């Protein structure tokens, strides 16, 4: 029952912490997750949330967002699901320019960890 307040807190940060908001959805039940995702998409555009879900390398979560967004998301997810190698999937997820910053941050964190 507190999920909308928590999601709003993450989205009011500068910049919005969509990744952390999406990570909160994983342990929720299906109905709670659907409600929370609907609220998150109310607070932010579908493209930003979809890219953040892809940046988490969570195809099931990206699929949930894609089902509420443009049909082009479903086509790109079908392409990713057709790839058998997880490493190649991750490479294809991180390749687009829109995720370049996320890929760079992950690389820097892996170097300094």
Protein model, in words:
The model has no long low-confidence stretch (mean pLDDT 81). It is globular, with a radius of gyration of 14 Å. It is mostly helical and 113 residues long. 72% of the residues lie in helices and 0% in strands.
Could you give the count of β-strands?
0
Summarize model confidence as the mean pLDDT.
81
Specify the biggest β-sheet.
Answer: none
Helices and strands, in order, run as HHHHHHHH
Tell me the distance between the termini.
36 Å
- The tally of helices reads 8
Structural class: mainly alpha
Uncertain regions: pLDDT < 50 for 5+ in a row? none
Beta-strand content estimate? under 5%
What is shown here, in short?
The protein has about 110 residues and is an all-alpha fold. It has eight helices and no strands.
Which key features would you list for this structure?
8 helices; mainly alpha; 0% strand; 113 residues
């Amino acid at each position: 029952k507190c999920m909308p307040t928590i999601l709003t807190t993450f989205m009011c940060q500068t910049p919005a912490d969509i990744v952390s908001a999406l990570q909160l959805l994983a342990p929720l039940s299906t109905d709670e997750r659907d409600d929370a995702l609907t609220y998150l998409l109310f607070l932010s555009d579908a493209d930003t949330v979809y890219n953040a879900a892809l940046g988490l390398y969570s195809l099931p979560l990206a699929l949930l967002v894609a089902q509420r967004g443009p049909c082009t998301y479903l086509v790109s997810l079908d392409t990713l699901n057709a790839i058998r190698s997880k490493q190649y999937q991750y490479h294809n997820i991180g390749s687009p320019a829109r995720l370049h910053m996320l890929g760079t941050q992950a690389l820097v964190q892996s170097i300094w960890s």
